[in-house]
């Protein structure tokens, strides 16, 4: 199973996903600032994975204060949480995991700081373990929705690189293949950073799952001509009504799927559901540098000084979603269980 991060001998390592698939390289993360930088530049990415990573990054940042006063320990705890929270505003798993660490700290305030740190580290490990278990449950629920012979479209990257376990949407696809289903995957490249072409295609190659790589603007053609049975995507935040924020371009894919009467599935752990926001209108969309659009592999590909934008996500309305697949089961419209 592909792992995006490792905790070993009280040291934290992540896989630098910006270098994949041409180079597999580990980075040691020694404090919260290094983790914040890694999350911002997408060295580690995927909503569940950055939640896990932020939890470990926070804990490793506090290791320097094991002999400090409680006041100083908690001062840095709260400051570092805020720094990590600001790295990526859309994916709710990030703040969810950091709040879990904060709550454990509050409830363990009477402990000596070394014991308190150990408890926080244990909570980060629990968050990681729980995500592995959630991925297993999601994939088990999800693969059963697919027919025995299936052509499926997926978008961005939602496998082991994006989670603590086998994955969410991509995990369902891999599980279906492992269970003997005759599956072929159409992988959308996912501009502007090509997470589909670079990461999903790499994971499917490792798992020996048959796939075809496509540019994003081929999807209408693929749906018309390739007998597509399902579209499966992940999520970075799900509102209480089921509106779902995911990688930019997901909404377009959902519109095409609805027109072509193809089931459109969203797969995500319940940690991605944000019950505090009633609809997708309340989801903050991360705005990334326009250089991600005008540059590719370090080379400028557009006219100099042209305007460009790079919203990282868009919101798919709940009525375009056939099912939402979580570790707790498969939910259908009108998604009242999220309220």
General description of the model:
With 339 residues, the chain is an alpha/beta fold. It folds into two domains: 5-136, translation initiation factor eif-2b, domain 1 (Four Helix Bundle (Hemerythrin (Met), subunit A)), CATH 1.20.120; 140-338, Translation initiation factor eif-2b, domain 2 (Rossmann fold, 3-Layer(aba) Sandwich), CATH 3.40.50. The protein has helices at residues 32-40, 47-61, 70-85, 92-107, 113-143, 169-178, 195-207, 219-225, 250-259, 291-294, and strands at residues 5-8, 11-15, 26-29, 149-154, 182-188, 211-214, 230-233, 237-238, 244-247, 264-267, 287-288, 295-296, 299-300, 310-311, 313-316, 323-326, 329-332. A seven-stranded mixed beta sheet has the order 6-5-4-7-10-16-17, with helices on both faces. Helix 7 links the parallel strand 5 and strand 6 (211-214). Helix 1 packs antiparallel against helix 2 (47-61), helix 2 runs antiparallel to helix 3 and helix 4 (92-107) packs antiparallel against helix 5. The longest helix has 31 residues, at 113-143. The model has no long low-confidence stretch (mean pLDDT 96).
């Amino acid at each position: 199973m592909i792992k995006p991060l490792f905790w070993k001998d009280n040291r934290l390592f992540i896989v630098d996903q910006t270098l994949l698939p041409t180079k597999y390289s580990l980075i040691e993360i020694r404090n919260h600032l290094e983790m914040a930088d890694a999350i911002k530049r997408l060295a580690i990415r995927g909503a569940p994975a950055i939640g896990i990573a932020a939890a470990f990054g926070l804990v490793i940042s506090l290791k320097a204060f094991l002999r400090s006063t409680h006041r100083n320990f908690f001062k840095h705890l709260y400051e570092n949480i805020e720094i990590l929270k600001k790295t990526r505003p859309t994916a709710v798993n990030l703040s969810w995991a950091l709040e879990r660490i904060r709550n454990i700290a509050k409830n363990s305030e009477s402990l000596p700081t070394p014991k308190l740190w150990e408890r926080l580290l244990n909570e980060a490990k629990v968050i990681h373990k729980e995500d592995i278990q959630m991925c297993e449950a999601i994939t088990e629920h999800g693969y059963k929705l697919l027919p025995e012979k299936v052509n499926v479209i997926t978008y961005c990257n939602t496998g082991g690189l994006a989670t603590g376990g086998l994955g969410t949407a991509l995990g369902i696809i891999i599980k279906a293949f492992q269970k003997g289903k005759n599956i072929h995957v159409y992988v959308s490249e996912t501009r502007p950073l090509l997470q589909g072409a670079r990461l999903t295609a790499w994971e499917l190659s490792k798992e020996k799952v048959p796939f075809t790589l496509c540019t994003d603007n081929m999807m209408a053609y693929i749906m018309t001509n390739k007998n597509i049975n399902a579209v499966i995507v992940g999520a970075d935040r799900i509102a209480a009504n089921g509106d779902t924020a995911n990688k930019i371009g997901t909404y377009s894919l959902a519109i095409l799927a609805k027109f072509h009467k193809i089931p459109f599935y969203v797969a995500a752990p319940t940690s991605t559901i944000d019950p505090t926001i009633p609809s997708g209108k309340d989801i903050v969309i991360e705005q990334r540098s326009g250089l991600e659009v005008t540059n590719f592999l370090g080379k400028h590909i557009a006219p100099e000084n042209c305007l460009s934008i790079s919203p990282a996500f868009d919101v798919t309305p709940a009525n375009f979603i056939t099912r939402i697949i979580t570790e707790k089961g498969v939910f259908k419209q009108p998604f009242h269980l999220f309220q």
